[in-house]
Amino acid sequence: MHVEISSDMISLHDNGLVFACLLDGKGCARTLDWSDVAQWTPADGPLWVHLERSAEGTANWLANEADLSDLTLRILLEVETRPRVFSSDDGLIAILRGVNLNAGANPDDMVAIRMCVSENRLITVRYRPLMTPRDMLSELVDKRKGARSAPELFVKLTERLTERMNSAVVDLDEKLDTIEIQLDDGDLTLIRRQLTEVRQTAAGLRRYIGPQREALARIQIERPVWLDTNLNLLLRESADKLQRYVEELDAARERAMVVRDEISNQLAEGMNRRMYALALVAGIFLPLGFLTGLLGINVGGMPGVDNSWAFWVTCLMLGGVFLGELYLFRRLKWF
To answer: What does the pLDDT look like over 101-133, one tens digit per residue?
Structure first.
C-alpha cells in the first residue's frame, strides 16, 4: 500500500530519484518510488520525475527505461548548457535557468534545469539543487493546489523560475540607489568595489536571461499541439517579463557606467585640487627659494656679511615678497 508523505520529507535516497509524483488531474499528486515509476503508463495519469544528474541511476533510467531518443538523452545529461527550447519526437525539450538562492551562493550563478515535457509526462534533471521544483511539489502534495497536467506543470515551473529573477533584478537597482546616495560622502574606493560587483552581477544575469527570453519566445513558433491557448499565453507572459528584466539589467549597467564616470570625475577633481594646491605652494616658494639660494652662496662681496641687522632685513624683504605674491595670485584669481 502506498503511503503519502509530505514534500519536506523527500530526500535523495533512491539512486538519482529526487522525487516523483503522479498527478490526479485535480491539483493534487501522490509521491512515487523507482518501482512505481517503472510500472507507470500514460493511462495512469500525468507523471513528473525529478532526477539528480550525478547519480548513476539517473543515466540508467533515462537511457534504458524512459524511451527517449539519443538527442534528447544527450541534452538532458549535458553539463554546460545555455537556455534553449526545441521540439522533438519526445516532446518539448527545454533547458532553463533559475536564480541561485542556495545559502552562500551568488544570484548571478544561475542554476540550470533540463526538462522534457510531453502531454502525459514531465522529466526534470538537475545538477545542483534548485528551490522551484520543491515548491511545485509542495503545492501538489502539501497544499493540493498545484498543476493538473504535465504541460501546466511545465508552465508553472517556468513562471516560478521567471518570478524569482525579479528579486535579483530589484536588488541590483537598490544597490545602485545606495551607491548613488553614498557618492557625496562615502569612501570612493569602497564604492568602486561595490559598483564592480553590481556590474558583474548584472552581466551574469543578463548572460542567461536574454537567451531564456528567446527560448520561451520560440515556443510560440513551435507550439506543440498539446499546449493549449491559455498555457501558451502564460508562457508568452513569462517571455514578456524576461524581456522587461533584460531591459532593466541593461538600464542598470548603463547606470553603473554613469556612476563609474562620476566616481572617476570626483577622483580626478580631488587630484586636481591637490595638484593645484601644490602648484600654488611651489609658485609661492620658488621666488623665496631663489632669493635665499642667491644670498647663501659662499663667495666674497655678499652684502650685509658684517652687518648684524642684515638677517632681519633679509627676513623682512622675503616677507614682503611673500605678501606681494599673495596679492598677485589674488588679482589673477588663482585662489
So the answer is: 766 667 677 888 999 999 999 999 998 888 889
- Taking a C-beta distance cutoff of 8 angstroms, is the pair 20, 33 a contact? yes
Is residue 10 over pLDDT 50?
no
Rounded CA separation 64/68 (Å) = 8
Return the bridge partners of 52, or none.
Answer: 126
Environment class of residue 287 by beta-carbon count within 10 Å: exposed (0-12), middle (13-18) or buried (19+)? middle
pLDDT in the model for residue 335: 67
Radius of gyration of the chain measured on its C-alpha atoms:
35
Q: Are 47 and 120 in contact (CB under 8 A)?
A: yes
Tens-place pLDDT, residues 252-276: 888 888 888 888 888 788 788 888 8
Domains and CATH numbers, the chain: 7-265 (3.30.460.20)
292 in Cβ contact with 315 (< 8 Å) = no
Provide the grid cell at 35: 518501482
DSSP assignment string, 197-230: HHHHHHHHHHHHHHHHHHHHHHHHHS--TTS-HH
| Interatomic CA distance for residues 267 and 190, integer angstroms | 13
